[in-house]
Amino acid sequence: MADLQYGIACSHVPLIGVGADQNREDDPYFAPIFAGFDWTRQWIMKPENRPDAVILVFNDHASAFSQEIIPTFAIGCADEFQPADEGWGPRPVPVVKNHPELAWHVAENLIMDDFDMTIVNDMPVDHGLTVPLTVMFNKPDSWPCRVVPLMVNVVTYPVPSGERCWKLGESIRRAVDGFNEDLNVQIWGTGGMSHQLQGPRAGLINAEWDRKFLDDMTEDTDRLRKIPHIEYLRETGSEGIEMVMWLVMRGALDPQVKELHRHYHVPASNTALGHIVLENVQ
Questions:
Q1: 158 preceded by cis ω (within 30°)?
Q2: If we measure between CA atoms, which residue out of 94, 87, 83, 92 comes closest to residue 20?
Q3: Is 61 a catalytic residue?
């Protein structure tokens, strides 16, 4: 049977992809950003930790979806997904190879579990998905695992609540546990942390709130599930709502988890960068 033991969360700041693509990882500005992922890059490539498949929870930034079509939750079920052209050409990264059997299994189980998933077979994937792969796996000729893309709308209101995202994670876990193939599966939640990209509060960063959120990934998950949208907006800026995608990841893990690694850095562009690696407690 498939096994899900680890969850990873990280920001997907597009500037991180720019730094990697331009080979600027050792520049003074970028060095502390990438240094925080050194531990994870070494850890994830050990045979006992390396995933066969990753369910990667991300949000689209008007690359695959627009105001014409706004799914709340969507899952990619095609064989592969091309890097998106976000206005300056696609990133020079490998094509994302799906695990379609796992993707269809998860989709079916989520729908039978009363989540109205949108099934997508044509979806260019932007920095929301490719930057996390870069910070974890560097610059391989091909990504070293299969990737099931699961998109959450956090761009156009109304967006799903933290509680709904948590329950989606729980449903994903049940689906993975019932997949009849010997697979090492990980789930990643991306986006955040505090940031606002426009308006009078552009550049807002709330490090105290961010660090409490990171603490409560292991200490007080009930609080995280109940954070209202207005608190995300008030305390973390208009784009901080992306952190509900971390709760999909957390909901897919056991109630008790162990924090293996944490990285928090300000600034990455005009964003607070967060990263955490969690393990189920056996």
A1: yes
A2: 92
A3: no
**pTM check: above 0.70:** yes
Which of 12, 99, 105, 127 is catalytic? The answer is 127
Domain count, the chain: 1
Distance (Å, whole) CA 153 – CA 72:
5
Note if 275 is an active site residue. Answer: no
Is 169 within a domain?
yes
Catalytic site residue from 99, 195, 263, 275: 195
Domain of 204, in residue numbers: 3-272
Q: How open is the CA angle 41-57-73, to the nearest 5 degrees?
A: 175
Helix (H), strand (E) counts: the chain? 10, 10
Could you report the per-residue pLDDT of 106-154, keeping only the tens digit for each? Answer: 999 999 999 999 999 999 999 999 999 999 999 999 999 999 999 999 9
